[in-house]
Specification:
Radius of gyration: 18 Å
Structural class: alpha/beta
Bound molecules: adenosine-5'-triphosphate
Largest sheet: 6 strands, mixed
Number of strands: 10
Distance between the termini: 40 Å
CATH superfamily: P-loop containing nucleotide triphosphate hydrolases
CATH topology: Rossmann fold
Number of helices: 9
Mean pLDDT: 94
């Protein structure tokens, strides 16, 4: 079973046609980077995968369930599909450890001792185990984003969605977050779908690169074909020549 399948998906915001006939299959373990100009529909596409945007035309099958079907239980999907946003949304009045333990406790009813153990493992994985007792306000933006990643990982998802996770960070914080994302991408049991403007990262880490413009997928290539070969689509070639200079 594929992790994510879009079949002829259309998305409208009122009269505005945001996604046009999206067909896309992502297998478990893949790391797929989504790029394209501003307003091309990247966020809309990625947010639809965990039901933050509703799809009512076509089929969108995530972890075996069709999100275009209103009867599908979105909470079951979200247990397996985590999301990391541009803004980290940590609870300001809870410690870092509590922030990470909250969702597994409430959603998964994970045993408290086990929950703490896993939370500490995830904090260790993002290099911030020594910050467990601190409050979010005591951390830098880059550290907060690493905590947000640890929080998503603590749910032990099959798939992680990243929507421009580094674009709100000070430049000197970006690499730390990208390095964590790289270790996640290397984990073959995890599927990652990443919207980013960090082309160096895409070039190094992606299995596949998808280029979107005007709500359409115009190119879906292996990383090597996209960056080293010639994308077949003219707009993708233009985009590439702009960003690589
Ligand atoms: N809630 C909404 N209501 C109406 N239009 C929307 C809504 N969200 C997005 N759009 C429009 O849909 C189009 C695609 O937006 P989206 O945020 O998916 O693009 P994007 O490729 O992620 O852009 P960026 O790189 O700037 O984040 C844009 O024209 C945007 O204005």
């Amino acid at each position: 079973m594929s992790m994510i399948e879009f079949h002829n998906v259309e998305k409208y915001y009122g009269d505005f046609h945001a996604l046009h006939n999206i067909n896309l299959t992502i297998e478990a373990g893949e790391t797929v980077v989504l790029i394209g100009p501003s307003g091309s529909g990247k966020s809309t596409l990625i947010r639809s995968v965990n039901g933050l945007e509703q799809i009512r035309e076509g089929q969108l099958i995530v972890n075996g369930q069709d999100l275009a079907n209103p009867k599908t239980d979105i909470n079951r999907i979200r247990k397996n599909v985590g999301m990391v946003f541009q803004h980290f949304n940590l609870y300001a009045n809870k410690t870092i450890l509590e922030n990470i333990m909250l969702a597994p406790r409430i959603v998964l009813h994970r045993d408290e001792q086990e929950n703490k153990k896993i939370a500490m493992e995830m904090l260790d994985r993002v290099g911030l185990a020594d910050q467990a007792a601190k409050m979010p306000a005591q951390l830098s933006g880059g550290q907060k984003q690493r905590i947000a990643i640890a929080r998503s990982l603590a749910m032990k998802p099959k798939c992680l969605l990243f929507d421009e996770p580094t674009s709100a960070l000070d430049p000197e914080m970006v690499d730390d977050v990208l390095n964590i994302m790289k270790t996640i991408a290397e984990d073959s049991s995890m599927t990652s779908l990443i919207v980013t403007h960090e082309m160096g990262f895409a070039r190094e880490v992606a299995n596949r690169v998808i280029f979107m413009a005007d709500g359409r997928i115009l190119e879906d290539d292996s990383k090597d074909k996209f960056f080293n070969g010639e994308p077949s689509n003219e707009r993708a070639r233009q985009f590439l020549s702009k960003i690589l200079h």
